[in-house]
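User: Here's a chain of 367 residues. Predict its fold as tokens.
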Amino acid sequence: MKSKIAKQSENLLEELQTALAHGTVARRVETLRRVTDLFVGNAVDYSDDHIRVFDDVFQCLIEQIETSARARLADRLAPIAAAPPNIIRTLALDEVIEVSGPVLTKSERLDEATLIEIARSRGQPHLKAISLRRVLSEALTDVLVTRGNQDVVQSTVGNPGARLSEGSLTDLVTRAERDDDLAACIGLRPDLPRHHYLRLVAKASSSVRRKLASAHPELTNEVSRVVQEAAQRVRIAAMTKQTEMARALVKSLHEDGRLDELEVTAFAEQGKFDEANAGLAALAGVAVETAETMMIESRTEGVMILAKVAGMSWPCVRAIIAMREKLSGGAQADMLTLRDTYEALRSSTAQQVLRFHRMQLGTKPAA
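Assistant: Prediction complete.
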């Protein structure tokens, strides 16, 4: 003999199937709303058998309901700890983020395996929704840090309930060397291990270090020492043997009168940064260090200023800009726009900007 719960389930499913088969869209939506109201209003009182009945009902409805209604269902079921597990999984796997988002962010019914499955297979909006969960395990944050874009990574790091593995922290601190926002976000985590914190501040910009020092006043003295030691190591290590050889080669070419923009273009096309930088510096009549500072800036104006002072043609400038992009991994620049900007730039203007830049750096023209 069938149980009372099972019979109720059959009757309810039969009633719903009839309504869905012969009803209008409005009637289907209204049916879903009433069933959802019934469940949400009494969720704490339902037994596991009752929840299974609702799970069957919701699964039946979800196959024949439009996106907006599925999204409303997800929004109402997501905060309920005892929500039917199968429909929660179905909603979480939905490709439409308006449906899956609330469940991915709020539902405690989702198991770890399902969350990792979604984090490994879905796009950035789904990853962002997962990153906002109250608690994130190391296994889950590893996937978010590996697959997530900048927005997802910062959201994950900024989540106090996210546990970060040693591997993820090592990767994040390395990436933070080129991202001040990420550096500040990591450094403000109260659970950041000390060795990662000191490595972070050693490479951070002055603005990030000030922000971190105010958040961790007990480490101010040690941070200052680490920063000074790091700066000294950078100055010592900056002049590698390869850099010395590159600069010596360019100096020899310049002194012999064999250095021109064709040589610099060839260096740039071959990805030889040290040679291209030294060549540009020599032709522009500036110190190699000045050119290097202007070359590694995120914007391309520095390169164009130096090139204009050196009297270079656009093909050479384009090769240098392309080399910078390739080495830095940055986005591809709009070369047509840059060409127009370069051709419109006056040599006298470039000279004035370069003088101002030298004044800021406290350097003199090259001998």
